[in-house]
Amino acid sequence: MISKVLLALGLAVLMAVTGVASYVYLGSRQSKVVAPAQKPTASTPLAQAFTLPGTIYLEQAGALYSFSAGRFHQLTPEVGWTQPALYPDGSHLLAVKRSGFYSDVFVLTPYGGVTAQLTNNAASPRNAWDTGANAWSFYPRLSADQRTLWMSYDGPKYVGANYFDVDMAVWAVPVGAPIRSGKAWTVANNYTGGDMQPVPVPGGIIYTKYTYDENGNRTGQLWFTNRAGSAGHALTSTGAGCLQPAISPDGGRIAMICTYQKQVSYLEIATWNGSGLGALQILISDQIVAEPIWAPDGSGIAYLAPGGPAAPFQLWFLPKNAYAPPPASPIPTPSPTPGGPHNGPLPSPTTSPAPVAPIVKPIQVTTNLGFDATSPLAWLG
Amino acid sequence: MTTITLVVLAVALSAVAGGFAYFLPAAATALQETGQAVTIASPSPASILFSPSPSPSSIAVSQGAFTVLLLGSDDDSKFSADHVLTQSMILVRVIPATKEVTMLSIPRDLYVHLSTGGFGKIDGAYSYGAAGAAIATVEQDFGVHVDDYIWVGLLGLIKVIDAIGGIDIVTSNPVMDDYYPSDIYGNSPYDYQRVAVLAGPQHLDGIHAMEYVRSRHSDLQSDYGRSKRQQQVLQAIRAKAKQLHPSDVPALATAIGGELKTSIGLDKVAQLVPLAASFDNPDAIRQVLLLPPYARSGAPDGSLTPNWGLILPLVHQYFP
Q1: Nearest alpha carbon to residue B305 among B107, B140, B128
Q2: A303 to chain B, closest Cα gap in Å
Q3: What is the tens place of the pLDDT at every residue in B91-147?
Q4: Which CATH code for domain B39-318?
Q5: Which residues from chain B sit within 8 angstroms of residue A289, using beta carbons?
Q6: Nearest-by-CA chain B residue for A34
Q7: How far apart, in whole angstroms, are the C-alpha atoms of residue B220 and residue B210?
Q8: Shortest CA gap B173–chain A (Å)
Q9: Cross-chain Cβ contact B200/A219 below 8 Å
Q10: B221-248 pLDDT, tens per residue?
């Protein structure tokens, strides 16, 4: 009798365990695509030993991080920080802090401490009722002499409330001066979103201009201008849909993202001669790729791309050999020596097969982070 | 021997029970929100603007093709339940045999004869008679047969996208809007907020994807531009959904509970899942927008005047 009770009890326990195990097992089979991204500081960047040179500054979930020697360090809390950019001398960072209705540019130390606020884009109390009285500042950059702040900016709007056109223009403002001391360098196309991502280059700026093409589709285009108030001239076609320009450390090449108005994007580079681009060279194609940045030592290009199909963006690195392979070393071709020991007809020289350059693949640096790819990277050498 | 059989049976039963418990919330949601009955009022002959193409349903049956009307609504507190406008109306034709998909975005401001009587913007049809009225209006005005509908509310779209871990999308331009309705998480449904969805390839969570597809103030193409963005997001959701595992279903069902309704029955859903996964060429998805001259502004209350002479041949080309 007792043994039957024990048996029944044991069976009940076994059934309970089996049921719970079945439930837990199914839960553990959930796909990784819905798993929340890890904080960069909680992850190991890469299984194998691979370290990028210098320090990369990047943003995830409203916080800025630095990434050096294979380790992430959180610089700011998750309160809307984005779009880090370096001072040309590397001493400080510029970054944008987004709030609900506006965004401002700040100066930070390399360790994330705020040292100055360069813009004041919140609406004043007297017209706080008007959403449009606020302004956005995005994509800040400094001129080479560190005296001028370049940014995309959508104000001031003189037309008042209920004005629906919000277009960013590229502005230049003396560092530390109010916006009224600044100057709009570009004239945005209406109802396009405007002009974005200014990149100061010797003699002017390269930027992304949004426009309607002949089919009425809005698309990005790289432009160059060398004087305030002038749109300048286009560097890429509307059909290519290019954006996010990044200039190489030697100033001779531009990396960019082109979409060709599709739901995929291409990492491309082109030579830059100070006023125009050479032919576009596709480096990464037919996937989604964003935010290219050149390594300061010229060793390659880092960018953001999904770690898997439809997954959050991860950090990737494309070594230089992928787009600028070293010249093939000359292979000595044995030549017959007339008058030598050979006594018959000279063999016709055979053509040596051309050496096949090894395919250089991009390296995935992080695996389980969650970049949204709306923030450029900054890379300090 | 009998004891061992009983023990094995009991263990197997408890394993099944564990699985049943795991999928129970999903099953409950599915039963509640799928297979919604639709009452479609027969339009009076006078209200039919043209003769519908002959026996469309027989064509659908013969090829296994079917047509679904996707409806997206503002369902915030400005509206009472089921009396909402359908700000997004997309007619989707699927031909499984050839793996062809056609998505026709119907401008929400199109001035049409409503199935419930009178004329008005087509987005009002749902508010007068729920899905049945919206379907009947589309069927009578466009001369198509609608097999099923799927309705999703604002919060539903946000929850769906968050539940699948966000979507990857290439936004063609910055979407800037100073007068975006702050009606989902704001204090008042009549407040405004500013949005700035920056351009480029990016990963969007639910709230930002909603901002991307819903904003229309800063778009010269207004509702047309918005329709393009809606189709992009739908394709991105589809791409992401292909990566899901059946074990994700309960969490997904919990997330979208109450924010989605469909006339598609559970049995058909089971058939559609593998079918959707087999469509692996996004370029094979045909996107159709009724841009001018198919519709022009100038109708009452800012609505659009349809050019039926152009619209109907186009629609019947893809929705026979």
Answers
A1: B107
A2: 12
A3: 999 988 888 889 999 999 999 999 999 999 999 999 999 899 999 999 999 999 999
A4: 3.40.630.190
A5: 201
A6: B165
A7: 19
A8: 6
A9: no
A10: 777 788 889 888 988 988 888 888 777 8
Q: Which residue has the higher pLDDT, A357 or A367?
A: A367
The predicted-structure confidence for A22-61, as pLDDT tens digits, reads as follows 778 877 777 766 777 888 988 666 655 578 999 999 999 9
- Substitution target from B177, B202, B222 for chain A, most A beta carbons within 10 A: B202
pTM of the model: 0.81
State the DSSP string of chain B. -HHHHHHHHHHHHHHHHHHHHHHHHHHHHHHHHSS-----PPPPGGG-SSPPPS-HHHHHHHHT-EEEEEEEE--STTS-TT---EEEEEEEEEETTTTEEEEEEEPTTBEEE-TTSSEEEGGGHHHHHHHHHHHHHHHHHH-----EEEEEEHHHHHHHHHHTT-EEEEESS-EEEEEEE--SSSS-TT-EEEEEE--EEEEE-HHHHHHHHH--TT-TTHHHHHHHHHHHHHHHHHHHHTT--GGGHHHHHHHHTTSEEES--HHHHHHHHHHHHH---GGGEEEEE--TTSEEE-SGGG-EEE-HHHHHHHHHHH--
In the block, tokens 């929705």 appear at: B319
Instruction: List the single residue in B164, B170, B240 with the smallest CB-CB distance to A263.
Output: B170
Q: Which two tokens stand for residue A217?
A: 């589709």
Q: Which of A29, A32, A78, A131 to mutate to test the interface with B (most CBs of B within 10 A)?
A: A131
Q: Which residues of B touch A35 (CB under 8 A)?
A: 165
Tokens of B234: 């739908």
Give the residue extent of every domain in chain B. 1-31, 39-318
What ipTM does this complex have? 0.85
Average pLDDT, chain B: 81
Identify from A153, A191, A260 which residue to disrupt to test chain B contact, counting B C-beta atoms within 10 A and taking the largest count. Answer: A191
- At residue B281, the pLDDT reads 67
Interface contacts A/B by beta carbons within 8 Å: 208
Report CB contact under 8 Å: A164, B177.
yes
- pLDDT (tens digit per residue) in A221-232: 999 999 998 889
The residue among B132, B144, B153 whose CA lies nearest residue B81 is: B153
pLDDT digits (tens, 9 = 90+) for A88-140: 999 999 999 999 899 999 999 999 999 999 999 999 877 777 888 899 999 99
8 A C-beta contact, residue B217 and residue A205: no
What structural domains does chain A harbor? 55-323+361-380 (2.120.10.30)
Identify all chain A residues contacting B13, using CB atoms and an 8 Å cutoff: 15
Please name the residue of chain A whose CA is at the shortest distance from the CA of residue B216. A164
Most confident of A195-199, A350-354, B298-302: A195-199
